[in-house]
Design brief:
The chain is α+β, with helices and mostly antiparallel strands. It is 32% helix and 18% strand. The protein has one domain. The C terminus is likely disordered.
């Protein structure tokens, strides 16, 4: 008889996203994420040195740049949402929904690693 696994529900607000791609700041202050064009070892070895632009440059808007800079592996999504609300009072709207959609899109593209926030065990 096969046993079914219980699905573990994860609260997105407790996760601590961490960047997995290099980035730079543009002249206007927004973030530009650098995504390598090739991942295969041979292509990286032979083609990348010959390319003028070895990365695809993804330009983020001001809200995306703000969230990207917060993805340090220590800041939770709940803290990001609170900071986003204080920074962009009128344009934040529903901060949790915006951050959730953005982070899930980044995780799907393998640009961000969503880490489960480790709860510290208190010693008696």
């Amino acid at each position: 008889m096969m046993r079914r696994r219980k699905r573990q529900t994860i609260n997105l607000l407790e996760l601590t996203p961490e960047q997995r791609a290099p980035w730079e700041t543009a002249e206007n202050g927004n973030v530009v994420v650098l995504i390598p064009k090739f991942h295969h070892e041979l292509l990286v070895k032979w083609l990348v040195p010959r390319l003028k632009y070895p990365h695809v440059r993804v330009k983020l808007d001001k809200l995306g740049s703000f969230v990207w800079k917060q993805c340090d592996g220590r800041t939770t999504v709940a803290e990001m949402a609170a900071r986003l609300r204080t920074e962009f009072q009128d344009s934040a709207g529903s901060a949790e929904d915006r951050i959730r959609t953005f982070l899930l899109m980044l995780e799907k593209s393998d640009l961000v690693n969503l880490n489960a926030h480790e709860t510290e065990k208190k010693q008696p």
